[in-house]
Amino acid sequence: MDIELLEIRDFLAANHPFDQLPEAALSELPTRLQVRYFRRDTVISETNSLDNYLYLIRTGAVEMFSAENELLARLGEGDVFGYRASRRPNQIEHHCTALEDALIYQLSAQDVDRLCEHHTQFAYFFGSVVGDRLRDAVSHAAQVTHSQVNLITTPISELLKREPVSISPSASIYETAKKMAEERVSSILVIAKGQLAGIVTDRDLRNRVVAEALDVNLPITEIMTFNPTSLKEDAFAFQAQLHMARHNIHHLPITRGEGIAGMITATDLTKHQTTSVVYMVSDIFKQDNIQHMREVADKIPDLLVNMAAAEASADSVGHVITSITDAITTRLLQLAEERLGAPPVRYVWVAAGSQARNEQTAKSDQDNCMIIDDTYDPKLHGDYFKELAKFVCDGLNACGYVYCPGEMMATNDKWRQPLRVWKEYFSNWITQPEPMSLMLTSVFFDMRRVYGSRNLFRDIADHALEMTRGNRIFLAFMSGNALSHQPPIGFFRNFVLIKGGEHNQTFDVKHNGIVPIVDLARVYSLAAGSKSVNTLDRLEVVAEGGEITSEGARDLKDALEFISYLRIQHQARLIKAGQPADNFMSPDHLSHFERNHLKDAFSVVRSMQNVLSQRYKM
To answer: pTM for this one?
Structure first.
């Protein structure tokens, strides 16, 4: 092979999807290419002829347009177009123009068909468009080997090994205990007219009967837990684990339709996963000092590494990690109340940011606030709530959740206020959307109750949503603020990297990759008046309500999952190397597959940002 052909072969090998071809196919390919040069503003392909060739840009840049001359994309070195790479079924095809002088390799559709027929991995690229490729990439990233038995992909139904053990509510305590002993179970379901009425556990018999010297001839209704929480059998085991962790329970009834399918326990789950969030949360609630809680929190990086190794979805990782943060926060509040006494008036502790969205990873700072009942009197009650907030925020910091650099914490007097003040805050932010107001709403529109009064939280959430629903002026300002975070991809689909400093030649995958999607989902969710806070939930809701197309929502969800997945793998890699987790990713650490699909994900975000900017023009 002469030097020129060898140089072309090396260029092909460095770019996707040609990097998926074996050596023999790569070596033959340069002789089958046509090398074409297009002057600036030259039409490369008229409408309806793109499918005849696959084009690979060697140098220069290309603009792709719809039949209506709407700019669809700008492509640069290493990008491909034509054939089925840029085509959606049942849609009008595109045409392209050289944005600047361009050298392009052109391969006939017949040659591409032949390569696809013999090389499956190469064919995969052309079977999908951007959104579909992202979905396939997410699916590929989430695959686990059969030897890696884990809770992420295990249906609850697989954990049910026996028929449910139950008893009538008319049975006595003695009869119930006897049946539990005979059946060798640690819990029993109380069924009335075919419906779940209650549950009794070994702990109930120990604490409510033996410890209280209760008459065992009394009906079981005297000690059972009425209307226990439950899950459906088609849920996944990790959802059961989260449910048990959040409710601090070890026995969970499982339903099938209107009836009962069985019961699973924390032990059932730990048999399938060594690092159990249920037991970590249980340990947290057993602790009576911050040092011991810190020892449990120190296991979070290992938990993330284990979930990354099992290639768990980013969504499940976020929920699992956040459930531990919730437990630590709740336990600190319980300890604070034990230390300071019962609160003098009602209050609710609220998480903001990624904790509120259930999207935390191994690196998180604090975002929290406190809403207090309007009977609050600063002179009478101020010291109590100030001390409570300090105890909790100091405790969170000791457990690895560092203080918020912007002081978005309940220790800040501004974020520890009665309900009426919070309503004034939101009213002012929404009616006077200055830059600071928009920044604050971006934080506090992602709110979730962690501990305390449900009614107080519902009041402020309803007030905020009522003011934003249909408020196009405010939504336009929010849109402008959301567009301030741009994905790190340049004019020609090249990565835009930080230059100089500690993070030289990297990009911030959180603030420039994930935050733009979070911002988009928030704006559309507010427009829809949705109470959802989790980003995937928001996208689901707004698609159903027509705020964005179902296809657009699906593409954003897949982009978020893939970008977040790479972020988790990046953080796990740092943790395993003994380094602190961060969000600064280098393209050099990504495979060809990951780089190209990350570009797809960023392109999806950029496209959806353009749609948002057109919808809410100032």
So the answer is: 0.68
What total number of domains does the chain contain? 3
Place of tokens 């650490």: 589
pLDDT beneath 70: ranges in the chain = 1, 46-49, 70, 72, 84-93, 124, 127-153, 270-276, 278, 491-493, 617-618
600 occurs within a structural domain: no
Residues 281, 260 share a domain: no
Q: Which two tokens stand for residue 164?
A: 């449910």
The domain that holds 299 is classified in CATH as 3.30.460.10
pLDDT of residue 553: 92
Q: Which residues form the domain of 254?
A: 156-270
The answer to whether the CB of 67 falls within 8 A of the CB of 47 is: yes
CA-based diameter of the chain, in Å? 96
Q: Is 144 helix (H, G, I), strand (E, B) or coil?
A: coil
Residues 6+ apart with CB under 8 A from 579: none
Do both 283 and 319 map to the same domain? yes
Pairing type for strands 347-352 and 368-372 reads antiparallel
585 is a domain residue? no
**Is residue 136 domain-resident?**
no
* Strand 225-226 to 195-201 pairing: antiparallel
Give the C-alpha separation, 180 to 469, whole Å.
53
- Shared domain check, 71 and 207: no
SS3 state of residue 560: helix
